[in-house]
Amino acid sequence: MALLLALCLPAWAQKEYKVAEPSGKLYLNLNGARIEGYTGNEIVFRSKGVPEEEDERAKGLQALSSSGFTDNTGLGISVTKKGGDIEVNPVGNSSRGDILYVRVPNTVDIVFNNNKSIFADTLLIKNMKGEIEVSSSYNAIVLENNSGPMNIKNVYKNIEATFANDIKGPISIISVYGHVDVAMPASTSANLTMGTSYGKLYAASDFNVAITPKAVDDERAAVKIPDRVTEYDGMRVKVTEGVGVPLDSLSKIVMSVPPSSGTGISIARIFSGGLGENIEGTINGGGVDLILKSTYKNVYLRTD
Predict the structure, then answer these.
(1) Are residues 22 and 152 in the same domain?
(2) Confidence class for position 276, pLDDT limits 50, 70, 90
(3) Do 186 and 255 lie in a common domain?
(4) Same domain, yes or no, for 286 and 202?
(5) Do 94 and 26 have their domain in common?
(6) What average pLDDT does range 202-209 have in this prediction?
(7) Does 179 share its domain with 228?
(8) Do both 107 and 87 map to the same domain?
(9) I want to staple 150 with a disulfide (CB 3.0 to 4.6 A). Which of 132, 158, 219, 222 is the partner?
(10) In terms of domains, do 41 and 173 share one?
(11) Do 285 and 263 share a structural domain?
């Protein structure tokens, strides 16, 4: 019976493509990937998924893509060298269930970008000692045992990160609509910035967090802005609510864009204090710069 079931299940096929370690950075413009650092000197791409039924009509023909990239790997991706860098781009529609695994020499700097496709797979990056930069709209992001430095930006999904003892700053992890959950050793020394506009901030009591007292709350005005697309930490997002501005800046806003101009900007009310929760301080006396923020959800800092 077990043999019969095994025969009925689709076989998982793996394909592999290798390229020599770059002297520059590895740029990944993909829907998602599983990226793991190791001590070798080659970048190894491997795709694991249910094999497609062979198309007899396509034999001898080359797949075309509106992206302009050509699949030179057999994995549905284009891998090209640009100077000392390597750039990876998707070609055509990926097959259902396909997962791209990338083994990378652990000192290589990685730049991952996916701000277009809503059909995004989880992005996992682990065991890297080089610099990591991520800009994503729809990928859930998981970071495991990476040293940093890193600059992680996400719009709609959560970011989860765990660190070991070898941490190099600066570390910046920011999500707009997802939570940020970070675990690191209690012995970590850091200059800490945490912030959220609509959620809450949490930290383990094991950390020796010394919060810098805020200055006296300044009076601020709530300014309603019509829906628009704007820049948020380098990413384009839609603004649908008001913002708070210092009262001494209000006259400049009204003078530059008066309500009668038809832009829809209006003064709602004046209040004391800032928006949300924002703290600055140190962990264990200070050290690497650590920035953890979420606009709409909670931020967690826990021990590993």
Answers:
(1) yes
(2) confident
(3) no
(4) yes
(5) yes
(6) 90
(7) no
(8) yes
(9) 132
(10) yes
(11) no
Report pLDDT digits (tens) over 226-247.
555 555 556 565 554 444 445 4
Any domain includes 171? yes
Task: Answer whether residue 191 shows pLDDT above 90.
Answer: yes
Domain membership of residue 2 (yes or no) is no
pTM of the model: 0.77
- Asked whether residue 123 carries a pLDDT value surpassing 80, the answer given is yes
Range with the poorest average pLDDT among 2-11, 39-48, 79-88, 227-236: 2-11
Number of compact structural domains in the chain: 2
pLDDT at 56 over 60: yes
User: Under 8 Å CB-to-CB from 21, ≥6 apart: which residues?
Assistant: 40, 41, 42, 43, 105, 108
